[in-house]
């Protein structure tokens, strides 16, 4: 635990609520750890300065290069990065050619790698959308690809996709901002578990694992949504657990949708629009709150029960079955409170409910960061026989990376959970 983070940990764990009598650490009295003051290298160094540098420079302390990616192509023992936030739009990659390299901050200077894009010189116009103080800006010169904006940072504060029911994800948690359901509201799986379409296999000889030394599973079938498409729970009859009859076991499956029973409005024009790149999402608890799911909304049917049909998703947990409480997001018709935004990928228009006096646009002095990237640094070797060695990353902060719940997940064992094989910093040797 970083000693300078004690107050943040106290707040994150809500110790004032759950541990009566504990005293919040005084941040002003905590030691300063970041940024570190590591000594400068005496030789074989390349310097990076995002403000004053040019990639055509030599990389000396007096003539730094501009980008970290260019610095990594230069043969150096150390890459020294000057103060600033570096917006990474393409993952920085390191391999065996960087063996022995150190990437560090300049002594005492804060260096951040951000997965966002800085939105500058925006021309705000009052929007015709209904809601509190909604403004729009054209991002076509900045968002030149088809990436979604998974979050915004407005003057350091998080803004979130327009959602229903409303809730501030920074301060309001379940049950606030959720709709309720019964198990019967969750519709038939798109891939039926009966008869089981999976290929059944036995996994044996895992001597390092005393509990799952030998176990069975299924490939493909209802597990085809995983990467790799395998799980203990995709077999026909799960092997009874030790000392139990495996109560509650069933062949893995996820619902194909949910009947909202008119908990949502009858019409959402944005959800019935065809030929659009925009996606709306439904986030849900699995029944009994055993894991969280996220789905793309494939279609929305405003009829007697108002059904939502799911597309990609549901692989964020290892067990299936019906869902529980849920909410929808990235729906432009739900942009109605301060803190929410909507980005239209088709038109490149950003809509935001501004925390300013009604009738006035967001301040021109506001710093707005669009979060778009998930991987900032990758360190990988071509094979186990030629590993990456002695690479050191120090004094660098990482921030503003996008949500990854809809990235590929896999079930790594015979357990109940699924994981992503990715990270802001990804290392594989």
Describe it.
The protein is 4% helix and 28% strand. The protein is built from 4 helices and 27 strands. An 8-stranded mixed beta sheet has the order 7-23-10-11-21-22-9-8, with no helix packed on it. A 6-stranded antiparallel beta sheet has the order 12-20-17-18-19-16, with no helix packed on it. A 4-stranded parallel beta sheet has the order 1-2-5-25, with no helix packed on it. A hairpin with a 5-residue loop joins strand 17 (281-286) and strand 18. The longest helix is centred in the N-terminal third of the chain and has 7 residues, at 6-12. The chain is globular and about 70 Å long. The relative contact order is 0.18. The model has no long low-confidence stretch (mean pLDDT 92).
How is the topology of this model organized?
Elements (H helix, E strand, L loop, with lengths): L5 H7 L2 H4 L26 E4 L19 H4 L6 E4 L2 E4 L4 E3 L7 E4 L5 E4 L1 E4 L5 E2 L7 E5 L12 E4 L2 E5 L1 E2 L34 E5 L11 E5 L10 E2 L25 E3 L9 H4 L8 E6 L5 E10 L5 E7 L9 E7 L10 E5 L4 E5 L14 E4 L5 E4 L11 E3 L2 E3 L25 E4 L1
Parallel strand pairs: 1-2, 2-5, 3-6, 4-24, 5-25, 6-26, 11-21, 24-27
Antiparallel strand pairs: 7-23, 8-9, 9-22, 10-11, 10-23, 12-20, 13-14, 14-15, 16-19, 17-18, 17-20, 18-19, 21-22
């Amino acid at each position: 635990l970083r000693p300078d983070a004690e107050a943040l940990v106290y707040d994150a764990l809500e110790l004032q609520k759950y541990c009566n009598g504990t005293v919040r650490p005084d941040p002003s009295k905590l030691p300063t750890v970041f940024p570190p003051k590591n000594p400068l290298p005496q030789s074989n160094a390349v310097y990076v300065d995002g403000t004053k540098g040019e990639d055509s420079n030599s990389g000396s302390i007096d003539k730094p290069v501009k980008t970290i990616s260019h610095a990594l192509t230069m043969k150096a023992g150390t890459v020294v990065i000057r103060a600033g936030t570096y917006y990474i739009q393409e993952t920085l990659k390191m391999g065996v050619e960087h063996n022995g390299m150190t990437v560090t901050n300049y002594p005492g200077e804060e260096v951040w790698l951000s997965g966002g894009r800085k939105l500058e010189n925006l021309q705000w116009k009052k929007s015709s959308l209904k809601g509190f103080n909604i403004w729009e800006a054209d991002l076509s010169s900045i968002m030149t690809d088809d990436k979604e904006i998974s979050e915004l940072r407005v003057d350091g504060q998080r803004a979130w996709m327009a959602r229903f029911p409303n809730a501030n994800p920074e301060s309001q948690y379940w049950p606030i901002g959720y709709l309720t359901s019964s198990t019967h509201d969750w519709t038939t799986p798109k891939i039926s578990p009966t008869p089981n379409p999976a290929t059944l296999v036995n996994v044996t000889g895992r001597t390092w694992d005393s509990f799952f030394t030998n176990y069975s599973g299924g490939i493909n079938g209802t597990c085809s949504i995983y990467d790799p498409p395998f799980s203990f729970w995709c077999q026909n009859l799960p092997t009874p657990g030790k000392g139990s009859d495996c109560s509650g076991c069933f062949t893995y499956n996820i619902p194909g949708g949910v009947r909202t029973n008119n908990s949502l409005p009858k019409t959402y024009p944005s959800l019935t629009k065809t030929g659009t790149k925009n996606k709306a999402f439904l986030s849900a608890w699995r029944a009994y709150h055993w894991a969280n799911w996220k789905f793309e909304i494939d279609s929305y049917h405003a009829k007697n029960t108002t059904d939502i049909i799911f597309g990609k998703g549901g692989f964020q947990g290892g067990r299936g079955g019906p869902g529980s409480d849920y909410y929808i997001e990235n729906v432009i018709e739900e942009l109605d409170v301060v803190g929410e935004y909507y980005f239209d990928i088709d038109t490149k228009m950003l809509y935001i409910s501004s925390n300013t006096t009604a009738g006035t646009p967001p301040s021109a002095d506001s710093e707005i960061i669009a979060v778009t990237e998930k991987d900032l640094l990758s360190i990988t070797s071509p094979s186990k026989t030629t590993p990456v060695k002695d690479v050191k990353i120090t004094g660098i902060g990482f921030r503003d990376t996008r949500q990854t719940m809809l990235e590929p997940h896999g079930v790594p064992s015979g357990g109940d959970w699924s994981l992503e094989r990715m990270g802001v910093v990804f290392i594989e040797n």
